[in-house]
C-alpha cells in the first residue's frame, strides 16, 4: 500500500483547512445581520405586531428581495427556518409510514396534507410579510398562514375523528364526522375574518372541543382508536395550546424587551412547539391508521356482541374496548 509523502499530507491538511475556513466565513456572514435592517419604529403599522422586538426588521422589499433574505440573518430567520425545514423533512419521511393501496388511502392523504400545510402557509407568510405591496397583501399572507393551520386542524385531524368512531353505529359515526366537518368550515370562515391573534386562536375552539370529547370517550372506552396513541393524542393539542398562549402573551421578550429580537422570542418558541405538536399528531395518526387497517368491520361487530353479552367484564382485551 502506497504511503503518503509529507508533501501530500501537508496539501491535504491545507485543503481541509481552506474548506473549514470557507464554511466558517459563510456561517459568520449568514449570522451577521446586514446594516440596512430597520427598527420597530421604522416599520409600517401592520408590521408593528410585537413591540418587544425592537430591531432586525427587513425593509419593505420586492419578491426577489424577500427570497434573498433567506441568506442573511434578520428577526424572521428563525421563524422561516423552523417551518421551512419541516416541509422538506415531512415530504421525505412521512409517506413511507402510510398505507397507499387500500381503502385508507384517503386518510393517508388527509394526514400528509394536514402535516405539511401549516408549514407551507407559515413559511410563505414569514418570508414575504415585508413585501412592498402594502397592508392588503400582508393580510392575504396572514390568511394563507391561517388556512395552513386550518388544513391541519380539519384534514389532519380526520384520521383521529374517524378512528374514534370507527366501530360505532353508522348513524352516530356519520353524525360525528359531518358535525366535525361543519365545525371546521365554521372555524375557517371565522379564522379568515378574525381581527386579533386571540380571535384567530379561538376560531379553532369548536373542532378542539369535539376532539376533547372524543378523547374523553376514548379514555372511557366508549370510542375506538389505538390505545397506544393516547399519549400523543394529549400532546398534539396540549403542546400547541401552550405554544399558542406563549405566542399571544409575548413571553419571554416581554420581560427582556429588545434582547430576544433574533432568537428565543415567543414566536420562535411557539414555532418549535407546534412542530413538536404535529410530530405527536403524526405518531398518533400512524398508530390510528394502523389500528383501523387491522380492525375490520366484522371484528368490530364480534367485539360488540361479546361486550353486550358480558358488560361487566372489566378485563377485556386491548382490542375489545373499541366497541360497546
Ligand atoms: Zn409564525
UniProtKB/TrEMBL annotation:
Q: Keywords assigned by UniProt?
A: Membrane, Metal-binding, Transmembrane, Transmembrane helix, Zinc
Q: Does the keyword Flavoprotein apply?
A: no
| Compartments, record wording | Membrane
Q: Which Pfam families match?
A: HlyIII (PF03006)
A single Gene Ontology CC annotation of this entry is: membrane
The protein's topology relative to the membrane is: Multi-pass membrane protein
Q: Where are the transmembrane segments?
A: 80-100, 106-128, 149-171, 177-195
GO MF annotation list:
metal ion binding; signaling receptor activity
Q: Which residues of the sequence carry a binding annotation for Zn(2+)?
A: 126, 267, 271
Q: Does Transit peptide show up as a keyword for this record?
A: no
InterPro entries registered for this protein in UniProt: AdipoR/HlyIII-related
The main place the protein resides is: membrane
The family annotation for this protein states: Belongs to the ADIPOR family.
| UniProt protein name | Progestin and adipoQ receptor family member 4
Q: Please tell me the species this chain comes from.
A: Chironomus riparius
Q: What is the lineage of its organism?
A: Eukaryota, Metazoa, Ecdysozoa, Arthropoda, Hexapoda
